Amino acid sequence: MTAPLLEVRGLNKIYRSGGGFLRAPREAQVVKDVGFTVGRGEVFGLVGESGSGKTTIGRMLLRLTEADSGEILFDGQDVRALGPAALRGFRRRAQMIFQDPFASLDPRVRVGDAIAAPIRLHGLRPAGSVKDRVVELLEMVGLSAAHADRHPHAFSGGQRQRVAIARALAVEPELIVCDEPVSALDLSVQAQVVNLLADLSARLGVAYVFISHDMAVVRHLASHVGVLYAGRLVETGPAAAVLGAPRHPYTRMLLAASPRPHAAGRRERAEATGEPPSPYGREPGCRFASRCPHAVAACRAAEPPLDAFADGARFAACIRAAELGPETAPAPEGAPSPAFQTRMALLRAARAEGRAASPDAPA
Ligand code: ADP
Ligand code: MG
């Protein structure tokens, strides 16, 4: 039996701040006991509000931030135990794309050179054919040879993100951690880049850990999702099941707050209410209890385990998940909300026209 591409177990991260000679530092547990599996070529969507620990998890997966404890197994090998040489090999197989395409490219380096650098570093092509490979990569992301000689400032946000994708693909990775790769882009450009990422994953068989706070984007891309709340996964499972019939009250709140197909109509788009708890000195019990409309006394007694239910493929950390049941999930009533319809229509239109493979603005 071959190992899954990525297996994460019991991941924890505590940040310490302040403190001094006589004062203990304050501790914030920003990632708590996170585990999930990503199969080869699969897209795992990691969703949660800002500050829930998504970026910290993404960075820990690639050893850009060290985890405090837990296991990260990539193709069966223990990523946390890799020495410098093995880490370089791992970095060829697992890449990251960041939210801000302006920060992730050096303004002084022509994009052709930026894409060629990792090819040369890892010796992936003979010197004479690096340029051809760069052109091939530019075309793969909907740009062309003419773009290679330009500097990043000549590119739009969407085009820069395409360059970042080409650079990530240059090493022929098996996994890309995409950290909110479209959040900084205009809505219409978001659709094109999301479709480009979907096409590339399907075409090249590359897997993504796709980090986003946008349920519509995750629904479009991911086969499995994990819903993160205050550093902990509170619900996981197949995307269609989790987003179609959420069991955890927080997943429901997120979906109700985001434009989605089953909302709207008579039902107004709800706001997510309340604030996540402070990561400094948490109360005992369920971390969502203070915002949960279904909380009872038992919820404040102990942290609920992430339990399997239904066919064993879904998990929710809620002692009332079974009792609340799918029948009390937001009913598929009314028409999709206008905002969600717009988003999905853009995604579909971009796909139909094959615009995913064309640049979003002339350079
Ligand atoms: P997200 O990506 O979901 O917005 P982050 O992983 O960036 O969440 O942050 C999770 C929590 O960890 C936040 O409360 C944030 O303030 C805190 N945090 C992130 N990086 C650091 C750091 N280097 N030092 C201290 N706290 C941090
Ligand atoms: Mg983040």
Automatic annotation (TrEMBL):
Q: Which Pfam families match?
A: ABC_tran, oligo_HPY
Q: Its principal location?
A: membrane
Instruction: Enumerate the PANTHER family for this protein.
Output: D,D-DIPEPTIDE TRANSPORT ATP-BINDING PROTEIN DDPF-RELATED (PTHR43776:SF7), TRANSPORT ATP-BINDING PROTEIN (PTHR43776)
Which GO biological process categories is it annotated with?
peptide transport; transmembrane transport
Topology of the protein relative to the lipid bilayer: Peripheral membrane protein
Q: Which CDD domains match?
A: ABC_NikE_OppD_transporters
Name assigned to this protein: ABC transporter ATP-binding protein
For this protein, the record's Gene3D superfamilies field holds: P-loop containing nucleotide triphosphate hydrolases
Origin: domain of life = Bacteria
Alphabetically ordered keywords of this record: ATP-binding, Nucleotide-binding, Transport
Q: Give TM regions.
A: none
Q: Which InterPro entries match?
A: AAA+_ATPase (IPR003593), ABC_transp_ATP-bind (IPR050319), ABC_transporter-like_ATP-bd (IPR003439), ABC_transporter-like_CS (IPR017871), Oligopep_ABC_C (IPR013563), P-loop_NTPase (IPR027417)
Give GO MF terms, alphabetically: ATP binding; ATP hydrolysis activity
The protein's location, in the record's own words, is: Cell inner membrane
Q: ABC transporter domain spans which residues? A: 6-255
Give a GO cellular-component term. Answer: plasma membrane
Region described as Disordered: 259-281
